[in-house]
Design goal:
It contains three helices and eight strands, in the order ββββαβαββαβ. The protein is of the alpha+beta class. The chain has one domain. The strands form two sheets. Strands 6-7-4-1-5-8 form a six-stranded antiparallel sheet. Strands 2-3 form a two-stranded antiparallel sheet. 30% of the residues are buried.
Length: 152
């Protein structure tokens, strides 16, 4: 994209800035409730072991569009989107002050940063601790989010 700049090229998002996250997997929602996996990084790639979501979790920004247009555009990026939720930059930061943030990297895109890298091995005490931290933070973000698409 020619409009993309490095993340540091954009000012910090205002606290009142809403971000929109596409929910793609069945385990990300139950009815009209967002669940913790919606805000958890994926485990390392099973074949290569490479970490995924290294830039953070992708969210869309309004950038002059209506909420409905933003949510529909976020959903349209994927073949199968189950829902789109919104969460403000303030709510992201409040979920874990000094740890989580939303960092803009394009006019209509940002990443939620600060979430733990999920371990490949969940059988070790370290892996279990990291997984528990990921589930806790995912839950804190899920509690603060609201489904906006499809419309009620």
């Amino acid at each position: 994209m020619p409009d993309e700049l490095e993340a540091g090229a954009y000012p910090a998002l205002d606290d009142d800035c809403d971000t929109y996250r596409a929910l793609l997997k069945p385990n990300m929602l139950a009815g009209d409730k967002v669940l913790p996996p919606a805000f958890m990084r994926r485990q390392p790639h099973p074949e290569t072991g490479q970490p995924r979501d290294v830039d953070g979790l992708s969210v869309s920004l309004r950038n002059g569009r209506s909420e409905q247009d933003t949510a529909e555009a976020a959903a349209a990026e994927f073949e199968r989107c189950r829902a789109v939720c919104k969460i403000s930059a303030r709510s992201i930061r409040a979920a874990a002050p000094g740890v989580l943030d939303a960092v803009q990297d394009a006019p209509e895109h940002a990443n939620i940063v600060g979430l733990p890298e999920r371990p490949a091995d969940l059988t070790t005490p370290t892996g279990q601790k990291i997984q528990a931290d990921a589930e806790f933070l995912g839950g804190e973000l899920a509690k603060r989010s609201l489904i906006v698409w499809p419309p009620p």
